[in-house]
Amino acid sequence: MGASDFANLPHIGESVRRKEDYRFLTGAGQYTDDVVLANQAHAVFVRSPHAHAHIQSIDTAAARQAPGVVGVFVGADVANDKIGGLPCGWLITDTSGQPMKEPPHPILAQGKVRYVGDHVAMVVAETLEQAQNAAELVQVEYEVLSAVVDVSAAKSATTPVHAEAPDNHCYKWAIGDKAQVDQAFAKAAHVTKLDLVNNRLVPNAMEPRAAIGSYSRANDEYTLYVSNQNPHVERLLMTAFVMGLPEHKVRVIAPDVGGGFGSKIYLYAEDVCLTWAAKKLNRNIKWTADRNEAFVSDAHGRDHVSHAELALDKDGKFLALRVHTDANLGAYLSTFATAVPTILYATLLAGQYTTPQVYVEVDAWFTNTAPVDAYRGAGRPEATYLLERIVSRAAWELGLGQDEIRRRNFITQFPYQTPVALQYDIGDYHACMDQAQKLADVAGFAQRKAASSAKGLLRGIGYSSYIEACGIAPSNIAGALGARAGLFECGEVRVHPTGSVTVFTGSHSHGQGHETTFAQVVASRLGIAVESVDVVHGDTGRVPFGMGTYGSRSISVGGAAIMRALDKIEAKAKKIAAHLMEASDADIEFANGEFSVKGTDKKIPFGQVALTAYVPHNYPLDKLEPGLNETAFYDPTNFTFPAGTYICEVEVDPQTGVVRVDRFTAVDDFGTIINPMIVEGQVHGGLVQGLGQALMENCVYDKESGQLLTGSFMDYAMPRADDFPTFNIGHVCTPCTHNPLGTKGCGEAGAIGSPPALMNAVLDALAQVGVKELDMPASPNRVWSAIQAARP
Ligand code: MCN
Known about the structure:
With about 800 residues, the protein is of the alpha+beta class. It has 21 helices and 28 strands. α11 (about 380-400) packs across α12 and α16 (about 515-525) runs parallel beside α17 (about 555-580). The chain is globular and about 90 Å long. The site of pterin cytosine dinucleotide (MCN) has 36 residues, from α16, α17 and α19. Pterin cytosine dinucleotide binds near residues 550, 682, 745 and 747.
């Protein structure tokens, strides 16, 4: 079935209420911490209080004797059992041709700790309180070393984070044709330059990470319950790379998961420790992070320092973009950390524009901070921020409107090959801009600005025209670029004898509503009720295989795998129907849940075919197997490219530096939309995350001690609903050309497009008082200080 036929099916484009919400809203969800196993003990991790130190000794004697303690484990135990370090899933090759530096990442520190929160020991006891009390008795002697927390300090550090990377440098990577870019700059009528910091963020899902390691002596099998976004990947990494176990002996269950935003894609040390110790102690062992623990030990996001230069001709047409970025990777390489500032970042720097030449160079550094990895958007927010900020700056320098400079450079012909590897299949950037300007009432801005001025407030307007790449693909090209995993998805459609359906998907839903939207896809294809379809995910014991959820891939890759399985179901069901109606296979048509014979009034419902498949009395057993159960794997041929224009309007109070977002308009192109209500919810969530980064969130480590200064919600400002106005949301639809649904991902767009729109608005407002530059977040203190500094 083609994407245009699909878009016209019933239930597609319908705001079906979320099936999963009944259990969430009635307290019937089953999160990892809700799982209580017999014989369950509790683990507590002893974490490093220092950013960088040699471990001189660990004395666990008192802890072992404390009430209720059943086991205490340290790095030496891990080494004795030959448990490997945590692997990195993406190999980046340095510009020298050498592989990136990949120092070991032990699950419990061996010899050295490298960030505040690094795992030093695990204490297991009968109760959580006993484990907490005993953990305080673990005596660790440290020789404290000097610490580096940012990239500039990393470059000149005397005590490297890892002996394997003596200069703290992990890799230098580049993309684009430097000579061509330099030539274009030599000819430019105007060059805009910008230095930018993309601030480090702490992901804060509602449910902190949690896991239970379980082992059965009866059949030598492990089960790991874990709050995770991709259980099959977790199992693959843990069995093949760390524990050396056969995969079929480990089951990973990620039950209800209360948000992830990227931070639960990774294989974390705690998960391995619990699984390993479950066998050693013959106990089921639970660990649930508290919020402070999450702050120091979850993988953080962003943390780039960049210099960008844009070359333009006299008409404001972009000739070339030149970028250098220093990326802070933290103390160890987290699972997909290395792909974020390279493949997922630099390849997006053409944006929506016809810039003929782009050259990007990235240096990645180790520091004494928590590992940094993908966080909602992963590389794409960093790219969009840089590009959309420099484009607005160029507009101001040339006296052009922020809209006009973008329109002069928009790509209008598709497919479009960018100079940074990606090929966009389709889009309509002018249509997004047109709709956004209308919804935002740009025409009324001057009047609103005058009204603000009359109140002593500075009003500004900011644009951002983002593009992103979702559903990383195809596997063979990603493999050539360093991916150490496949990037397909798997779906199984099990039609039951009575015609109801269970779908097993390798995607994982942790807030995105897959149980509803995937059911809509299946119900509309088979012509059955949405309620007749259940979706199973998050269990390696039930789902054949899966790569999980990240990069807004689930509907476009996971949904496409289900569509392929449905193609097989339909093909087989047509044969059964042909047999039942004594017609030829080629004459059978299927629509609205009924099989009919072309040119006749003969028809039978889907349910009758399903029943026949399982009660094959009148059945072509010589040609066809009974049953109606099909599995498909789908490896996309390209990314999907959602794009849009966001317009933000702010009011700044120059007396206090407080920024108020007065209006925010987001017009996105997600191709065909399955469920508009869910998509709108995804956009709202993304916008709040992006605006949070731009306005208030900031992860700060002390430069001397390496202590995390923003280690709780008292110091790390999370946005709240009343920080923002109602968002104006609009859609343009250019269906994706290469997946059977025509969909493009929507889960990250808001977080990608919104930070530059807000910062451009703030800078537009502050231009009235002479402020030219400001880094995120635009907190009152920063804004006020910038205003004071700009005073003549
Ligand atoms: N959808 C649709 N029509 C489209 C596109 C999507 O109806 N054209 C629906 C999908 O069917 C799905 C939802 O919208 O129900 C999101 O789909 P998609 O864009 O494919 O994204 P994923 O499901 O793969 O979700 C991942 C994405 C990412 S990468 C992050 S980070 C993120 C996000 O989703 N984390 C989230 N949204 C989140 N929302 C919640 N509540 N919690 C998180 O942790």
